[in-house]
């Protein structure tokens, strides 16, 4: 009796903590949506957290008709999608070579990749810009895809590395005895087992690429290739800014992120279960 | 198998794309920054070679206040490792244990990471606003009006006021990594421990956490390097002010390179950030290695 | 073996994929995509985003220019103010400037000109243009005696106030420093904080300090100290204005928490009637109309004079918004013409929109303009001198130090004496 009661209070406490943290974390969404429907006067002082007194739906039409948000959305989608695909494949290939293949210097090269975590983005702007110009690649999708992929690689290789440790080497050896080549092992043994890692990498790469601003401002001048973050930024004027339409644009930009994450996190869990059973 | 693992062509093919990308976009800028850091240069006109002059100024100039910014960044790194990560780990363990609504909580706890920094910045400006901010309004309502402050605008509070949102925002980031790590641990291990009579706490302490080491190591490295490079939210919330109180190396670097046209000096800050991050990343990796072996 | 080959091929394709970027799509590198064959395209970068009050003026001026020059197309790309500063500097460094670009005159663009990436346009400044654009307006686009840009607006800073709040509290609108201080005290007695300011966006505080300095030291002395180096900043007149800032801070005249407020947040408190005064640039005239619930309550006066060195007709401000031509443009003659045609057009349309004070002669009907903007335009027309805002006038490094020192002065880290000494040391470097 005593312990059952103890268990119950413990459980209530647990859910109270989780519930509180959930509220704290879901608040930004509520706030973003309400702020997208307000005027500057409400946002700055009159009514900062309540529901809008006057629901200004025109903020959404302002956000959508200003500039070319549809195109920017498409550009962001192309850039981010390609970046995720490239990062996943390139990092997985490199991780396999670094951790499972045997060659001199693999340890050192593995450490070198950590340099990717160290470079502050602003210090890289000018060197990368000059490099892209020399390759005649400014104002194109690859002007963003290539730097984004390079900057995501360090993180992706580390995540891959920690997941690959859980894949028993015996699996590879068995396949080898069955006559599989190194490529066969990679594509048919390693790749399928690394799905959870890939889902994790996809989410983190997505976050980086989808929200990146400075590279996107500097490397892209032609608005045909402009991405969403830059597009949203241009909703502000130089001396005064209507924040409502910016809020609306941010809601529009964030929704796919939320949806994608909901889908992906389900995938992660599913593939994790699958992995656990096989492992 | 040995022959397969030593297949030279395969090694080159697998490494080539990563190496090319990495060399072009990461290594070249590091070398260029190193080169620029030896010049008094505005980024546009002819520069003058001054050797290590910029580095000397970094550590001796009082007005630029660089040592203070490093101190601030290290403080953030410490808070990140000893406050943010334990919270993330706790949440990940709780959720992975299988509470009701696991999926819902997983999704919700990750929300701050998904929301654009612009929104997070604006939100916290509303929370901290001295006139009508949520904190001050609450303090006044509770009769604690004497404690109301200009959180982002006073030198004593600005630093912690910008750290809180940074730490909060990335709890979910580490939680997701750790959660995936826990889920990847074979359930048989937990079952075996449970059959041996271990309590939930003991399972976490003696089975899960040791198994999680590779993931925890990554989290620590991300947390430390991320802290040393922290920029976005600080720039939005205080811009490093007031009077440099919340300045970190990145904000100082950006204001030097792009605000004050001191590209050479800014590059020397960049080199120092790169050095610090790399030093800590390698040290953390080593530290975890020796403990495992 | 076959399997091995397929694997290799796959890996190779992946490797190529990452490199493929090098070859494709380069033809779109220049901004002239989307124009018909035979057209000449000029690319123009500016910060007149679609949400900016100057956007309509730019669009109309471009349309006029295109209509007058068949076969010419102006591709207008707009960027957000803050990140544009980084963008334009990177573009100069990497030699990626467009034909025409917006920039800030004075110290900001000095390095651009020195780097040789900007075209001198004296040759295109014909008598027709000279008759309509006063030479004085081009002083911040002139470097070493050569003209490098043209302008369209001459903003000035002035003291904006809420007339209704003054009337309701029976406080007279100040014309001298003493009256201003009296008004501040009177408001404080009624429990109203008199002046709105942002210290976080330090340029707002700088505008107040700049104006007080001008009204204390006078335009000649300011220019001598900040640009010519023939006058030390460590001088009683400069000390006086720094002291006035401290006096205002100490008496609580500035809105509390200004160190944590952005300009957006602080000016919102002025528009909604929380504070009665805000010192800002003439663009605030346009913002009052769009952002304040009762625009008719607001009015503007020149900043009061502090000493005999200055007159009420000396103004902070001047033509800083500049269009320049890149030295690397393929069509220098066309771009040289466009820079004057466009600035003339923008000057007119922006003034008619109430977005800014026209820099070019106003040979059109101006009756429909909002009264505050009109009043500011009259101030500008009658001004005896213009002094550029210090953070634009000085070169980038000095400007950065100036703003940092001002924050220090405001929060009390340094005294007015230390402030002028530190400024003198920075300017001597």
UniProtKB/TrEMBL annotation, chain A:
Keyword Membrane part of the UniProt annotation: yes
Record InterPro entries: MetI-like (IPR000515), MetI-like_sf (IPR035906)
Bilayer topology term: Multi-pass membrane protein
Entry keywords, A to Z: Cell membrane, Membrane, Transmembrane, Transmembrane helix, Transport
GO CC term (a single one): plasma membrane
Annotated TM spans: 12-33, 72-99, 111-132, 144-164, 243-263
Residue ranges occupied by any ABC transmembrane type-1 domain in the UniProt entry: 73-264
Entry's localization field: Cell membrane
GO biological process, one term: transmembrane transport
Pfam families according to UniProt: BPD_transp_1
Similarity section: Belongs to the binding-protein-dependent transport system permease family.
Name this polypeptide is given: Carbohydrate ABC transporter permease
Species whose genome carries this gene: Anaerotalea alkaliphila
UniProtKB/TrEMBL annotation, chain B:
Residue ranges annotated for the ABC transmembrane type-1 domain, each copy included: 70-284
Membrane topology listed for this record: Multi-pass membrane protein
Gene Ontology BP annotations: transmembrane transport
Gene3D superfamilies on file: MetI-like (1.10.3720.10)
Domain of life of the native organism: Bacteria
TM region positions: 12-36, 73-95, 104-125, 158-180, 263-284
Compartments, as annotated in UniProt: Cell membrane
InterPro entries: MetI-like, MetI-like_sf, UgpAE/MalFG_permease
A Pfam family hit: BPD_transp_1
Keywords assigned by UniProt, alphabetized: Cell membrane, Membrane, Transmembrane, Transmembrane helix, Transport
A GO CC annotation given for this chain: plasma membrane
Similarity remark: Belongs to the binding-protein-dependent transport system permease family.
PANTHER family found in the cross-reference section: BLL4140 PROTEIN
Protein name: Sugar ABC transporter permease
Record organism: Anaerotalea alkaliphila
From TrEMBL, chain C:
Signal peptide positions (record): 1-20
PROSITE patterns registered for this protein in UniProt: PROKAR_LIPOPROTEIN (PS51257)
GTP-binding listed as a keyword: no
InterPro entries membership: Bact_solute-bd_prot1 (IPR050490), SBP (IPR006059)
Keywords from the named record: Signal
Gene3D superfamilies in alphabetical order: Periplasmic binding protein-like II (3.40.190.10)
PANTHER family in UniProt: ARABINOSE-BINDING PROTEIN-RELATED (PTHR43649)
Name recorded for this polypeptide: Extracellular solute-binding protein
